[in-house]
From TrEMBL:
Residues 173-285 form the Fe2OG dioxygenase domain. The keyword RNA-binding does not apply. It comes from Aspergillus novofumigatus (strain IBT 16806). This is Clavaminate synthase-like protein. Keywords: Iron, Metal-binding, Oxidoreductase.
């Protein structure tokens, strides 16, 4: 089991210089050691924690139809709203032996939101009558976590002997994101067989992350001494785990490594794993800030390991490739819509309701698509979105010009979702799509 330092934030917020210096030194040492520390007396009260716990339990207990009303739509944007079980795939992120994550599952659903002040990417909230106090609880936690994160960055400046503002000037504004995770109860065999984890090994896309976890267990962090993953056991209800993200690793030129972690089987378990909850606040910087190494961490004998690019460019380069963004057909939508790199549409028929057969979806493409030999149109349900069905090369389908495309796919997942798009990024353009009424197309 991984032993990490426990820090008292009250010592940093107090007026005793020796205590402040000791806190800053221990924070730097803990981050350099394994990328994790524990934090107590941070100011997030038990009442805030209890309210959030009650609200998140109610939210994830809602029917799928209600959660779908605030579903997170895929695309090159911050995540907002609900993402269903298995939608996010992380198996390939830090495993060079996995290039196609289609056969691997993340057994979790999650809700994501940004700062309350964000008007460019506004947050999506469930019906207040169904989950009373959800928004208030989330926003209260968010504001407290944002303030705690800034205190920790100030302490890192002191611990490293940097000038005031060396880190904090890069974190100005409201840029963080918050995620509430729900890992439903599943048979333990699904994880032990190697094809499923609650979440696979990864480093957070953040500067630092603040994490509340329940008492279920299963969180493990990389121990560089033993070169293996070791359990990070849950502490008290009010204890925060703080871990370093990939942005802090770049800023410090690898002096602090990003805290590599995963969620797997707990130390003790039976045939069925109990459900697990966690809440993570990801401290982030404005997208125009650099992710290059700071001058203080670059020496003649330690040149920079990282290029001086913006966070936005880094996220584009390191994030999902364009072909990983898929449009979806959701039966409950009433009209078609378009999004960057996706076409989102709906079959105007109850065929996509509860059937586990092979429904037909008729889509009419309104503009001609550029045809490059070898590029393929694909469809597939979300569970198979990386192992999709190939529908033939576009140079074999010139009838795409203002014609009707009949998509015949088996939709064997509980959300009745179908994804479609182009395998090559050269074809990712907003599509003008209208959905035709679907009747009996079995003979088409």
């Amino acid at each position: 089991m991984l032993q990490v330092a426990t820090l008292n934030l009250a010592n940093w917020l107090g007026n005793q210089p020796d205590e402040k210096q000791r806190f800053a030194r221990m924070l730097c040492e803990g981050m350099k050691d394994c990328g994790f520390v524990r934090l107590v007396n941070h100011g997030i009260t038990d009442d805030i924690i209890d309210n959030l716990e009650e609200c998140k339990t109610k939210f994830f207990s809602l029917p799928t139809s209600e959660k779908m009303k605030i579903v997170n739509l895929p695309g090159p944007k911050p995540q907002r709203g609900w993402s269903g079980l298995g939608v996010e795939k992380t198996a390939h992120l830090y495993n060079p032996n996995i290039t196609e994550p289609s056969g691997y599952e993340d057994a979790k659903e999650h809700y994501d939101c940004g700062p309350p002040q964000d008007t460019m990417f506004p947050n999506l909230w469930p019906d207040e009558n169904l989950v009373p106090g959800f928004r208030t609880s989330i926003e209260t936690f968010f504001v407290r976590a944002e303030a705690i994160s800034m205190h920790l960055m100030e302490a890192l400046e002191v611990g490293f002997g940097l000038s005031p503002g060396a880190f904090t000037r890069l974190c100005e504004g409201h840029n963080g994101e918050l995620r509430v995770n729900h890992y439903p109860s599943i048979p333990a065999s699904r994880i032990s067989n190697g094809s499923t984890n609650r979440i696979w090994p990864h480093v957070d896309f953040s500067i630092i992350t603040l994490l509340f976890q329940d008492q279920t267990g299963g969180l493990e962090a990389w121990d560089s001494t033993s070169e293996t993953f070791a359990p990070l056991l849950p502490g008290s209800k009010s204890e925060l785990l703080v871990n370093s993200g990939n942005i802090l690793q770049r800023w410090t030129n690898d002096v602090i490594k990003g805290g590599l972690h995963r969620v797997v089987l707990p130390l003790e378990y039976g045939d069925t794993l109990p459900q697990r909850y966690s809440v993570a606040y990801f401290m982030k910087a404005p997208r125009d800030k650099s992710v290059g190494s700071l001058e203080a961490f670059v020496k003649d004998d330690k040149p920079t390991n990282y290029s001086n690019i913006t966070i936005l460019d880094y996220q584009k380069a390191e994030g999902p490739r364009p072909e990983h963004y898929h449009g979806e057909c959701f039966a409950h939508y009433e009209a078609s819509r378009t999004d960057f790199g996706n076409c989102l549409a709906v079959a105007e028929s109850p065929t996509l309701s509860t059937s586990w057969t092979a429904p037909m979806i008729a889509l009419k493409i309104r503009q001609r698509l550029e045809q490059l030999p070898g590029d393929k149109f694909h469809i597939g349900d979300r569970r198979l979105q990386e192992g999709r069905h190939l529908m033939g090369t576009l140079d074999m389908a010139p009838a795409f010009d203002a014609d009707t495309l009949y998509v015949n796919d088996w939709v064997k997942n509980p959300f009745q979702q179908v994804s479609f798009g182009f395998e090559s990024a050269r074809f990712w353009q907003p599509l003008e799509v209208e959905t035709l009424p679907v009747k009996n197309l079995a003979s088409c």
